[in-house]
């Protein structure tokens, strides 16, 4: 059981099964590099998306300080949902009928956690920056991002399993990067839409 748990944890992190304390650094790097290179290019996609909103950032530069917060929260909640889904699939807990139940439960979880975190950050930013519109923008972005990231974290492993792909293989880093892209689109999409309120 311990070996199986260790193997699943390694795969979630995008590390090969054979990557142990005795593995040669060159072999370990060779096993990790393919996923890291894929994620590097997905990261460049995230950076280019931020570049598309350069005009928005130039007009309201304070928006840039909340990018890591929103991206980090998306990654964290997506990884939590991913862990629940992969564990359930590994133990056989989620048969065909239980998969819809998992998605619905995670949607509810995302809604609750997103709403609570969104409200907290709205109040904090209002008190810190004395700008209610900025607080609402970041709070709404966090709320929507957490809902979408939680759904992605549970849905993607189920989709991989459906196509007979091991859902534990590099799902963690992959979902984190996908959620970065989603969070940037939500945050800057809302910021651009409501720009006049922020100026």
Word description of this protein:
By secondary structure, this protein is mainly α. 81% of the residues lie in helices and 0% in strands. It has eight helices and no strands. The chain has helices at 2-12, 25-52, 54-59, 67-91, 96-129, 132-162, 171-193, 195-198. The longest helix has 34 residues, at 96-129. The radius of gyration is 19 Å and the shape is globular. The model has no long low-confidence stretch (mean pLDDT 84).
Key attributes of the depicted protein:
199 residues, mainly alpha, 8 helices, 0% strand
Distance between the termini: 57 Å
Give helix % range: over 70%
Task: Work out the helix count.
Answer: 8
The backbone outline, from C-alpha atoms, is globular
Biggest sheet architecture: none
Uncertain parts: none
Structural class: mainly alpha
Share of β-strand residues:
under 5%
Mean pLDDT: 84
**Secondary-structure element pattern, one letter each:** HHHHHHHH
Strands, total number: 0
* Gyration radius, rounded: 19 Å
Summarize the structure.
This protein has 199 residues and is mostly helical.
Note the topology.
Elements: H1 2-12, H2 25-52, H3 54-59, H4 67-91, H5 96-129, H6 132-162, H7 171-193, H8 195-198
